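quick q for whoever's on today - can somebody do inverse folding on this one?? i tried earlier but teh output was garbage lol. tokens:
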């Protein structure tokens, strides 16, 4: 809906006339770019974890939405060393994939539960859980201005939490059997 194209490394490199190894030097997971006024999210389809791929796509979308990608700059922009931009993209991606108020409504207690309910990698869940702990320590009420608008999501949050916990229990049983 934002007009951003999502392409694999191979397709983007073919389109942009860039060598694959040059693209992989930017990132092994994905990156964002602007080519002839069009924004692209480029990802590595060989990343096996669906949660990791989802996080990468949202992280790169966050770079574009936050204005980190220079439309007039080079096709391959290396922003990896700009820690503040990486932190901004991580924070927005975390808010998109696992909103802190929904974690509260789900009653999740650790990063493993966040990974199971929201389908993110364990590393992403660890970062989100740290944000969640800071969120709970704030002087503000946990509704953060959402107020009554947040509570209609309670049934959804409880179903999601229940489903995530059941999935983890099945996996634990499967592992015990092995």
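ok took a stab at it. sequence:
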């Amino acid at each position: 809906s934002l007009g951003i194209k999502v392409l694999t490394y191979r397709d983007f490199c073919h389109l942009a006339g860039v060598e694959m190894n040059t693209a992989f030097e930017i990132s092994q997971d994905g990156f964002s770019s602007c080519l002839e006024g069009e924004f692209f999210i480029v990802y590595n389809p060989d990343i096996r974890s669906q949660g990791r791929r989802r996080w990468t796509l949202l992280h790169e979308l966050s770079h574009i939405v936050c204005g980190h990608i220079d439309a007039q700059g080079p096709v391959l922009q290396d922003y990896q060393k700009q820690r503040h931009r990486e932190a901004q993209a991580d924070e927005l991606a975390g808010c998109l994939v696992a909103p802190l108020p929904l974690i509260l409504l789900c009653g999740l207690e650790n990063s493993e539960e966040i990974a199971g309910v929201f389908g993110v990698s364990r590393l992403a869940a660890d970062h989100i859980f740290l944000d969640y702990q800071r969120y709970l320590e704030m002087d503000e009420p946990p509704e953060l201005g959402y107020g009554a608008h947040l509570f209609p999501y309670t049934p959804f949050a409880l179903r999601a939490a229940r489903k995530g916990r059941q999935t983890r229990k099945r996996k634990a049983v499967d592992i015990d059997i092995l």
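fwiw The longest helix spans residues 154-177. also The mean pLDDT is 80. so keep that in mind when u check it
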